Amino acid sequence: MDSMDRTVWIVWTVPYGWISPFGIFFLVAEKIIDMKSLSDTVGQLGLYFITVLLGLLIHGFILLPAMYTFFVREWPFRFTANMGQAIATAFGTASR
Fold first, then answer.
1. How much is the pTM?
2. Are residues 47 and 89 in the same domain?
3. In this structure, are residues 79 and 68 in contact, taking their beta carbons and an 8 Å threshold?
4. Which of 6, 18, 45, 52 has a Cα-to-Cα distance from 79 of 20 to 30 A?
5. Contact 65/81 with Cβ under 8 angstroms?
């Protein structure tokens, strides 16, 4: 099975892993060239950023604690506080 994994890795990762950055670069370059107004684009990007951040905050601070409380029947604050060191380590080491 190890040889199969290696073969799939070579067939998939090598060509696509080397070509993808160039393809993404040219897709972004095309959009930059077609840009009509930098201020409009930055404004739209800012709204998108705020929307994503708001969604993550709602999910992390409202929905997940509510689900934890509903299913476990305990307050989620002690559980969350105990995860603090693990979360800090994960962010600090760029762990995936």
1. 0.59
2. yes
3. yes
4. 52
5. no
**In whole angstroms, how far apart are CA 15 and each of 8, 21, 23, 27, 29?**
11, 11, 12, 18, 22
| C-alpha triplet 34, 45, 17: angle, nearest 5° | 70
Query: Mind listing the pLDDT tens digit of every residue in the chain (96 residues)?
Result: 688 888 888 888 878 888 889 999 999 999 989 998 989 989 999 999 999 999 989 998 899 999 999 999 999 988 888 888 888 888 788 655
Q: Clarify whether residues 84 and 68 are in a common domain.
A: yes
CA 1 to chain centre: 31
Same domain, 45 and 87: yes
Distance CA 84, CA 74 (A): 18
